[in-house]
Every structure is written in C-alpha cells, then in structure tokens.
Design brief:
Order of helices and strands: HHHHH
Strand content: under 5%
Largest sheet: none
Oligomer: single chain
Structural class: mainly alpha
Shape: elongated
Number of helices: 5
Helix content: 55-70%
Number of strands: 0
Distance between the termini: 31 Å
C-alpha cells in the first residue's frame, strides 16, 4: 500500500525503509508497518520466554532495535522512489542510527532464532526438532539475504529477507 502512495516507487528496486522516510508521501504507512513488525518480535519473545531466557531477551531487543529502525527515518528528499544513500545524499545522524538499528536488529534476531532452535532441538517431540532445524536454515537464509542485498535488486531481496524473518517468528510463536 505504501508503495502505491509514492509516485515512481518500485518494490523490486526500492528499499522498504524509503516508505517510512523523510520525504515519503505516506510515511505513516511505512512507520506503522515497521512498528507492527517490532510488536510481533516482542510478542514472540514473551511466548518463548518461559522456555529460553536468551530467546526472550534477544527477541525483545530485536523489537527495540526494530522500533529504532521505524523511528530513525532515513532522508529521501526527492521521495521514496530511487531513494538510497548511494545516490549522493549525505548521511546524517538519523540515517546512521537507522543503519545501526538494522544491524543490531539482525544480530538480536539471529541470537533469538539460535536460542529458540537450541531449545527446540533438545525436545523429545519430532515436530519440535523439525521446527528447530527449519529455524536454523531460516536463520542462515536471513543472514545471506542481508549480506547480498546491496549487490542485488535491493527491494526484492529486502522483501525476501522480511518474509524469511516473518516466517521465522511465526514458527517460533506457533511452537512456543
């Protein structure tokens, strides 16, 4: 929806963060989406917290860092379409905070997935062990997508990354 409200925005090319940027015509849509994503992480932390304190803390931190990503809006003075700091825009403090928030989110998220996987892999239930193994694969996929994002179609890869992370937290929530 946010992409349709920003002239020239192309989902395969443009970053999701540009939808909540300073310069987006409907930044509230992007901010709301990112905050909902953070809330989902916080909820998953609470669900799995009785099984793994490490997963609880990691998912809660992922929620905090996700909130920082949502609120530390990057600058897109010409609108969300084609917005990238590689386009000659000089990064300011909010841009840097946004970038650090993404990295800190991913670290906390990966720690949460590994902790949840560890708990599940030690289970006597086959289904829990299968989910634990799937979470390890999703964790590796998430990291790989984040690493290749700048060299690929960033919009497409970023959406795949968000999908992988969303599927991961849904699996943790269902199993928790």
């Amino acid at each position: 929806m946010g992409g349709a409200l920003n002239d020239g925005y192309v989902q395969s090319r443009d970053y999701v963060s540009a939808l909540s940027s300073r310069g987006s015509t409907a930044a509230f849509v992007g901010i709301a989406g990112l905050l909902a994503f953070s809330a989902a992480h916080a909820a998953v932390g609470l669900i799995v917290g009785r099984h793994s304190r490490v997963a609880l803390v990691a998912f809660e931190l992922a929620a905090v860092f996700g909130t920082i990503v949502a609120l530390a809006r990057i600058q897109c003075p010409d609108g969300a379409a084609h917005c990238s700091l590689d386009d000659g825009v000089t990064a300011d403090e909010l841009d840097r905070l946004h970038g650090l928030g993404v990295v800190a989110y991913e670290v906390a998220f990966v720690v949460g997935l590994v902790a949840a996987s560890w708990w599940l892999l030690r289970s006597t239930r086959r289904s829990a062990v299968a989910v634990g193994g799937a979470l390890i694969l999703l964790c590796m996929t998430s990291l790989t997508l984040l690493i290749v994002m700048p060299d690929a179609e960033p919009g497409t890869v970023q959406r795949a990354w968000l999908l992988v992370n969303s599927v991961s937290i849904i699996l943790v929530a269902i199993t928790g």
